[in-house]
TrEMBL record, chains A, B:
SMART domains linked to this entry: HTH_LACI (SM00354)
Record has Transcription as a keyword: yes
Domain HTH lacI-type: 5-58
Source organism of this protein record: Anaerobutyricum soehngenii
InterPro entries listed in its UniProt record: Cro/C1-type_HTH, HTH_LacI, LacI/GalR-like_sensor, Lambda_DNA-bd_dom_sf, Peripla_BP_I
Name recorded for this polypeptide: LacI family DNA-binding transcriptional regulator
Residues of the signal peptide: none
Amino acid sequence: MDKKLTINDIAKMSGVAKSTVSRYLNGGSVRPSTGQKIKKIIEENNYEPNVFARLKAKESRVIGLTVPGFDSVTTPRLVEVIVEYLKKNDYTPLIMHTGNKIAEEIRSIERLKNMNVDGIMVLATGSTKEYEEVVEKLQIPILFLGQRFPGANSIINDDYNAGYKIGEYIGKRDFEEVYLLWVSKEDPAVGGERQRGVIDGLFSCGKEPTEVIETSFFYEDAVHNVEKLTEKLKKPAALICATDRIAQGAYKVLYEKEIAIPDEVSVVGFGDYETGELMRPPLTTVKFDWRNWGESSAETMLQMIQQKPVSVIQVNPYEFIERKSVR
Amino acid sequence: MDKKLTINDIAKMSGVAKSTVSRYLNGGSVRPSTGQKIKKIIEENNYEPNVFARLKAKESRVIGLTVPGFDSVTTPRLVEVIVEYLKKNDYTPLIMHTGNKIAEEIRSIERLKNMNVDGIMVLATGSTKEYEEVVEKLQIPILFLGQRFPGANSIINDDYNAGYKIGEYIGKRDFEEVYLLWVSKEDPAVGGERQRGVIDGLFSCGKEPTEVIETSFFYEDAVHNVEKLTEKLKKPAALICATDRIAQGAYKVLYEKEIAIPDEVSVVGFGDYETGELMRPPLTTVKFDWRNWGESSAETMLQMIQQKPVSVIQVNPYEFIERKSVR
């Protein structure tokens, strides 16, 4: 008999759902009559469960989750949504912290695999050849969030178009100077795609950035860089900030130097932190629907564990939030 | 020969540090000559490592960390500091999320223990009899953060005195009404101690709260409760908020209803979030030194793993940050 018999075939032959066969193989409860039917077909056909099915037979109902760090607004709230969704589905998340380092991300993935997790979700920082090889050999479902990972499943934000929208919004207005306060291209999504979108958006209005100033994701670095910048900028100027956190750093400096927002210096960010509407003037920004992002990511992970079909790349949409920080 | 020979004795007899003996016993690298010296003494004295030393012999260099949730400003930044400190000392943190539920906290502790972690740090939510029994039987070091846990080591914030300071600060001023926007007493530290401090501080000035309004740690609930409150309060009023997050909710409502802060309604919080200085007017609050808290907690955990003496209760001090949100 054909050794390549699949769970799908068994399902068809026994007239039950694929998930029922899978549950039976994993020792879950099925109706006794159904169980007997499946058993008979398996025995008659010398069915050999494949590696993945065997792995699943000892499923841990634990899902690994690696995060670059919690010193951000986006990560903690995204983790909250994912954790809540996984728990509701009787999975326990096990969280590892990668310190925003690819080497640690790889090590965490290997460690989680050795702990026999059913799948791994990665709030990703980037990729390397070595990393891609590790992922390719992994044998358990892995899903990347926030970065497009070559050859693996990813759920990313629509960074390019969000950037384009902001670039265009600023480009249509009259400013003496337009500065980008941006993170390094080592972060492909924010540093790469989002910035490319902003620059293309400005360009579509015949404008270009006066300067792209490199800063980190940290508030303190933004404060430092904007302090230096205020010594030279020509008003009215616009500061396009890679994240709301960076925009907050800009606000702090502009408040202290009593530079009027938005009349002298306009500011925009990305992220729509809860506090954006509390800033004075309220911050114009872009919102990525993080609740939808977290839930659809967790659901995709569950579908992957159940060997259901999922799209290799999913894109989380953005929403433009116009407030009062641009003249 | 005396069977009760300790690592300490071996260290003295071989003239090396206790940590070197420990490293040798755990299969770590020591100088060959030192190793021979220790080996000789152990053999001559029929040294039997005790249960704990044997546990340590298979040390995982993994430390479990349970958190109630990341939907807060304090938890993510505290976790960052702890993780950084542990990693610097070659420990890998494994993080579990308890959803602010004691039952899940207990389950996470048991799970982490079964994963053979060297110690467990708990960002704690409270305690029960059952919980205390689990902790008592644990056999590996456990440290509670933020809540005093009966019979176990804890590092807590100086919530009572911080509350007292704020109560006194508001009590000394003239308000028609003073409202507390507070979390439930189910949280013993913030709901209990901190609130008791505020009320005692007000009382020391001959004042008492007009009403204690129960709210959650969430921004949305604060917004909802302050909206209802603004319909009845007599100005000038003061709102003492259990956390800065709650104070942010108050600001949002007061902005929307165009009620002047601080002249009509004064607001204070606890927590000193980064954004407090960006609010207009900047928020008067209390800061707990979370960096020191995180670092000393992680260091205490390491000391416990190394069986060094540590204080059962350690208190993290507060600092009053006077800004412009109180008339």
